[in-house]
Each structure stands twice: as structure tokens, then as C-alpha cells.
């Protein structure tokens, strides 16, 4: 083993992850080419610091390194090889110092060069749909901002001591991707839809992460639902309630003319058959509740007419 990463970062062997990070940041600022210059020695030192941090900040790589470091320290200790001498009648011991085979050093060097496949990170997002889309199903088109580790610098932010030109030194790149998502009929509020391998890209041949979409069902402002039925309240004037009228009602099928019968009472319900939600070959109705609304800002003429109606009702 040719490098002691603990000495490079100037930290003890049992440093915590926060201490490792703190030491790295301190040295990285000190030896950054923009600060210390761009000489070959500075660039080499800066790369060495990044290499040490890459190993010691990764729990798996650190464990392998510590294991190899432990065996290496055993291997470099002196080993006594005892031999009997046959030329001297008195028993005599001679020994020579040997170094243990560099097997562990070579093994670690090989392992550190192997790029282990790593699964990409999962992405989580929200999709809002109407209650009608939830009941009948729909297809939603969404744009997702996906972030991935920079393919050029591998997240190190620098290439050969210089700021990575691909990610501008951020260590990651972001791009928008367009998805067409099918919302199944009957989906429930806060249900999740998984899009396999549409998350962040994997590393070193590892598979991509997944995209998880949480469904939020939005109740319409002017409607309520009850099973497959749609509930709606409309306002009519007093004279429409008394004399009857034809009013337009917006439905899922478009505007429909609904007949208000004479002498319609406040709160009376009118059923529009087949104008509700369609699901599993079944169609609900729209149930309209009539609310008699007195107009604001009545004119003198209108007030006079209401007085005449009052007087007529008293005389009746």
C-alpha cells in the first residue's frame, strides 16, 4: 500500500465522517488550483486530497481500505525465519528479515480500480388530478427535472485539477424529461404510481432509479361527488322559481338546458340522468340543487313590485 489516506487528510484513524469532511474541506480550499496555483505539485496534491476523501467518505470503500491497511501493517513487520546451523556443534539460531508478500497491497489496488455498479437514486414527485379524472381515468403529461451525477467528472467537480466544463464544477447535471403517465380509473387519493427506471441514472452500469408519483385528487370548486353522481348547486331568481324557466347547466358532456318548473321551491333537487361519472361501463347522474337568490342592488321599480307582491299575499 503506497498511500496513507489518513496522513494525507491529517486525521486520526478513528475520525468520524464529519471530521473527515471538515478536514477535506480545509485542505481542498488550501490546495485548490485557483488558490495555490496551477503548478504540477499543487495539482498532484489536490488530486491526492480528493482521492483520499473519495475513499474515506465512502463507508464501503473505507472498510476495504482499513482492512487492507491493517494487513499491510502486519505484512511490513519483521518476520524471523529460524535456521539451524550444522557447521557449529553448538546450536545456533540465525534469522533474516522478510517482508510479507504484497498480496494485500495488490488486492486493494485492484479493488480500488474496480467500478462497482450502483443503482441510481429514486425520484419522488406529486401529480394533481380532478375527481373526474380519478373516477374515469386519464393520461397526464408531466415535465420532470432530473438530476444526475456529472458523466464527465463522476461527481468530483474537477477534471485534472481544473473545474469540470460539463457541470461547471457542480458535480451534477440537470435536464427536463417529458413523461406521459396513465392514471387508472378508480385511483385513490395519495396512491403512488411507479415508473420503473425513470429516476436518476445508475453509475458504472448500475440500473436507473425509479420515479414515484403521489396522486393528489382535487375536488372541483363548483361540484361535489357522491359515488358516480355529481352534485351541483345553481342559483335562480325568484321570478324564475315562480314562473319557471330554462337554464344552462355545465356538465361533463357540455352545457345542458335544464327546465325549472313553475313554483319551484328553494332547495329542490333536479336529477339529470346520465350526466355523472362514467366508470366500469356504469354512468352516474348529476343532481342539481336549486337555490333561490335575491338579486343585489334592486332598483326602485323592482322594490315596488316586491311590495305589490307582499300586499297581494296579505290580501289573499
Task: Return the structural class.
Answer: alpha+beta
**Tally of extended strands?**
19
Low-confidence stretches: 75-104
What is the CA–CA distance across the termini? 111 Å
Give the % helix.
25-40%
* CA gyration radius, whole angstroms: 39 Å
Main β-sheet: number of strands, strand sense, barrel status?
Answer: 4 strands, mixed
Total of helices? 9
Structure description:
By secondary structure, this protein is an alpha+beta fold. Helices cover 31% and strands 30% of the residues. It has 9 helices and 19 strands. The strands form 8 sheets. A 4-stranded mixed β-sheet has the order 12-13-19-16. The protein has a 3-stranded mixed β-sheet with strand order 5-11-10. Strands 1-4 form a two-stranded antiparallel ribbon. A hairpin with an 8-residue loop joins strand 2 and strand 3. Helix 2 runs antiparallel to helix 4 and helix 5 runs antiparallel to helix 6. The longest helix is centred in the N-terminal third of the chain and has 18 residues. It is elongated, with a radius of gyration of 39 Å. It starts with a helix and ends with a helix. The relative contact order is 0.09. About 9% of the residues have low confidence.
Amino acid at each position: 500500500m503506497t498511500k496513507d489516506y489518513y496522513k494525507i487528510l491529517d486525521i486520526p484513524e478513528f475520525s468520524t465522517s464529519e471530521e473527515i469532511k471538515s478536514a477535506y474541506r480545509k485542505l481542498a480550499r488550501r490546495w485548490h488550483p485557483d488558490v495555490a496555483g496551477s503548478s504540477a505539485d499543487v495539482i498532484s496534491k489536490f488530486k491526492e486530497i480528493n482521492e483520499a476523501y473519495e475513499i474515506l467518505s465512502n463507508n464501503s470503500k473505507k472498510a476495504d481500505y482499513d482492512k487492507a491497511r491493517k494487513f499491510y501493517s502486519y505484512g511490513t513487520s519483521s518476520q524471523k525465519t529460524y535456521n539451524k546451523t550444522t557447521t557449529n556443534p553448538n546450536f545456533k539460531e540465525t534469522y533474516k528479515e522478510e517482508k510479507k508478500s504484497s498480496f494485500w497491497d495488490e488486492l486493494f489496488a485492484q479493488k480500488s480500480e474496480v467500478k462497482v455498479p450502483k443503482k441510481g437514486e429514486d425520484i419522488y414527485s406529486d401529480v394533481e388530478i380532478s375527481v373526474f379524472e380519478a373516477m374515469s381515468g386519464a393520461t397526464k403529461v408531466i415535465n420532470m427535472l432530473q438530476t444526475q451525477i456529472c458523466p464527465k467528472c463522476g461527481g468530483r467537480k474537477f477534471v485534472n485539477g481544473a473545474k469540470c466544463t460539463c457541470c461547471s464544477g457542480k458535480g451534477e447535471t440537470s435536464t427536463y424529461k417529458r413523461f406521459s403517465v396513465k392514471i387508472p380509473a378508480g385511483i385513490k387519493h395519495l396512491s403512488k404510481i411507479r415508473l420503473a427506471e425513470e429516476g436518476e441514472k445508475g453509475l458504472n452500469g448500475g440500473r436507473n432509479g425509479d420515479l414515484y408519483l403521489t396522486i393528489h385528487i382535487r375536488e372541483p370548486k363548483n361540484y361535489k361527488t357522491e359515488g358516480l353522481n355529481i352534485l351541483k348547486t345553481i342559483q335562480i331568481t325568484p321570478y324564475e322559481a315562480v314562473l319557471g324557466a330554462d337554464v344552462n347547466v355545465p356538465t361533463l358532456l357540455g352545457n345542458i338546458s335544464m327546465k325549472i318548473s313553475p313554483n319551484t321551491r328553494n332547495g329542490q333537487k333536479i336529477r339529470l340522468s346520465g350526466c355523472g361519472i362514467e366508470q366500469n361501463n356504469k354512468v352516474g347522474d348529476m343532481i342539481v340543487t336549486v337555490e333561490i337568490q335575491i338579486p343585489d342592488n334592486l332598483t326602485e321599480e323592482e322594490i315596488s313590485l316586491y311590495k305589490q307582491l307582499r300586499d297581494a299575499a296579505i290580501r289573499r
